[in-house]
Amino acid sequence: xxxxxxxxxxxxxxxxxxxxxxxxxxxxxxxxxxxxxxxxxxxxxxxxxxxxxxxxxxxxxxxxxxxxxxxxxxxxxxxxxxxxxxxxxxxxxxxxxxxxxxxxxxxxxxxxxxxxxxxxxxxxxxxxxxxxxxxxxxxxxxxxxxxxxxxxxxxxxxxxxxxxxxxxxxxxxxxxxxxxxxxxxxxxxxxxxxxxxxxxxxxxxxxxxxxxxxxxxxxxxxxxxxxxxxxxxxxxxxxxxxxxxxxxxxxxxxxxxxxxxxxxxxxxxxxxxxxxxxxxxxxxxxxxxxxxxxxxxxxxxxxxxxx
Length: 307
Prior knowledge:
By secondary structure, the chain is α/β, with parallel strands linked by helices. It is built from 13 helices and 10 strands. It has helices at residues 8-18, 24-27, 73-93, 126-132, 149-158, 162-167, 187-194, 204-212, 226-230, 232-243, 256-267, 272-277, 281-290, and strands spanning 47-49, 59-66, 99-106, 116-118, 159-161, 171-177, 184-185, 202-203, 215-222, 247-250. Strands 4-3-2-6-9-10 form a 6-stranded mixed sheet, with helices on both faces. A two-stranded parallel sheet has the order 1-5. It is globular and about 45 Å long.
């Protein structure tokens, strides 16, 4: 997938027809998992990011959004404002070429009916339509975590990209939410999502290693989220222990796209200070704080610091 290019005129048409004057419920109308987003129905259980005439050097990005009750503001922000900011700034700043984005919806595999949803990789306005198809289930549970590592499993086992297979260039994977990661994901839980049972249970660290073979893995914690505000120290410790400097914390969710772009810029070799200074006003302040300590990716291996 990944033909075409994202354009402001296409975005204006999408916004006029789909989001302007509409509430979150009027935009995200799905009452169950959409077949097109069901990982168990993915063609050959794989999502592909391929080079094309319009995107000859494709760079795959996975953006995993927590769709439980406390995080509904994040997909709403992305479908109204965040998506064009993300594409425009990657095009303008050019930290990587030819972005192709896959959105994932993340819930709780223990309690939710749709704990993982996955779009195709797209480079044009069709990704906005797929984003709008996300089922905002709400849900979650009392276990103080969401199943973010399901995205790592899917990325490691069920994605195929020309970027890595032709050029040995890793893609970028961001999960976003306000809770901790679980310690493990069982084979039975993966079967619930994928319809195919693996031969073993996985520790979360195993899934991180699996995804990190072909993906630069980051997690962004939304500090405005209910769960973060009530379990700040536990959440910070959990993600820092897993990802080190790649555990990012964002004080203003309306700067999410800017943080994703900034993280890619820094990982591709720009200094964190220079990147923060390239933004204006409050955005510069937020990005500076969120990327403090983040440094260039080594582009190979896991690129993850364990505490």
